[in-house]
């Protein structure tokens, strides 16, 4: 029988008061109307695109894009914001397509919708899925109860905007992992750019994608439905993928300031896996599949259903949101063995955001709590050409989490805010191995504080400095390891870190920027190494490690009115620079070696010409001047590379948009990603080759 919660569900009022007292936050105050959010600058999001959609009015459950941007800019720390209309002007099918222009976010394609996603080195050595980043949709967690997650439930065609909370800045939603949180926001009928939207796109390697969206407001009720279907044969052999994603929401407003909204999602994946290659194979014959992938017909067949509700009550001095959700996931995953899993995740999360005056000064407060639980029936079988053979494992994985958090921003000067915050948590992991007999468990708890300053010296310019503590709790992929004679539970420690960051963001005349420097000192970083080409990596707690770097995004409008006075055309140069220095700190085995997985320098340059009549063209250069270390011994690096691409299109006044995009136009052979190993050799098969030259095109109709 599934155990949900060992105690009764959280009471919003009691948790809010307790958290306020815990963080030393003054709760008793007088309400005021906050208008300062309209006077701050958006973080530089690259490239800067002209969005022609009309402004939409949001509601308590789904704010407008402008309101979202204004709210996230009040964070005393490094954050990012992306209007979804920007990446809908090009071919978008996965996380790379959506996040490639966000400073501080490292994202690389592997195959299909599978990518490497890392912020500040989160999950740096994990060669599959995600660790250290909380994935949210509409502010509601998409991760499973143990913290694990994949990228297959986020549909670019179904989004309104993306909020990026790097590192400890994810505290705004209760996240205190090293990488932070990314919130993917879907539209409602009130914020959709049009009542009806249809798109069709496709291109190289048998790729075709179609999407349709319908939304209506009927009295006090509204609804929106979005369906996306995509198929791709893939650049490599044995890479065929089929995806069907459905996102529905319906809202009801019985009176002003009160709204409830139901969400339903269905995400179906049938993705063949091409496997990893040796370096010579990946560069010499990049379209081949690994022999183990072919013989085992390796694949990922995943079906996820998500049902959630968010109810929002708007009061004079703030807003209370209460979210509840349930996620069902079934997985058939033939790799080194056939992984066959079926599980549920449940959760509830009240959250209060309030605006007050204290001693005549502005004060913004966030209080929240989350309780999540889940169970997973985990079975494994020998892989017989992609089918189940004899059963090798029958187990149950149970996870429970109890969290309470607070964040306060007190403007002790009109242009300077002190931010304080903390999160208390307890996480419980229980594992029952019915095959071998026996039960194992590990509990984690702690407090993660945050302290920072936000300075707004003038309109549209901000500077900040803050220090935060993070703790990453192992998921069951870490705790249950198969790199032994049998599958067993390994009671890893939580990964703990202190991070100091400072930066500035803003706009001034022709310039826009978003720059952050950070330094993290980590104790017990969870690292992996590949035991062989088809077995998931084993995980261990390292000693002391350091993650530090610079996240730079900047843009400058080089020229205006090139075609003549008041013509409205412009040329904008955008630059992304992520510098990452991740290393051991006096490790007994590896000394001060760099941690493998991510290149030290990643550059992206985009020059965009746009006209007032909707025509635009944007050539781009993606450059990795020095490859990443492949192994902990630091004996091998991936080759450097530069990729040339271009996007062009037109937004017609009748609601029709057309685009064409070329990627890797020079047909460069390169390594897009790999799984780190202890010591690399010529026979090490851990590399994913990048796609060759690809051309895409598409059309979008709004009416």
What does this structure look like?
- With 703 residues, this protein is mainly β.
- The protein has one domain (40-311, 321-346, 382-398, 455-702): Maltoporin, Chain A (Beta Barrel), CATH 2.40.170.
- It is built from seven helices and 37 strands.
- The strands form six sheets. It has a 22-stranded antiparallel beta barrel. Strands 2-7-8-5-6 form a five-stranded mixed beta sheet. Strands 14-36-35 form a three-stranded antiparallel beta sheet.
- The longest helix has 11 residues, at 12-22.
- The N and C termini lie far apart (50 Å).
- Mean pLDDT is 90; it is low at 1-55.
How many helical elements? 7
Helix-residue proportion: under 10%
- Termini distance? 50 Å
Sheet with most strands: 22 strands, antiparallel, barrel
Low-confidence stretches: 1-55
Task: State the CATH topology.
Answer: Maltoporin, Chain A
CATH architecture assignment name: Beta Barrel
Determine the structural class based on helices, strands and strand pairing. mainly beta
Q: On the 0-100 scale, what is the average pLDDT?
A: 90
Number of strands: 37
* CATH class placement: Mainly Beta
CATH superfamily: TonB-dependent receptor, beta-barrel domain
Count of discrete structural domains: 1
Describe the global form: globular
* Rg, nearest Å: 24 Å
Beta-strand percentage?
Answer: over 45%
Pfam family, one: TonB_dep_Rec_b-barrel
Keywords: Cell outer membrane, Membrane, Receptor, Signal, TonB box, Transmembrane, Transmembrane beta strand, Transport
Membrane topology: Multi-pass membrane protein
Subcellular location: Cell outer membrane
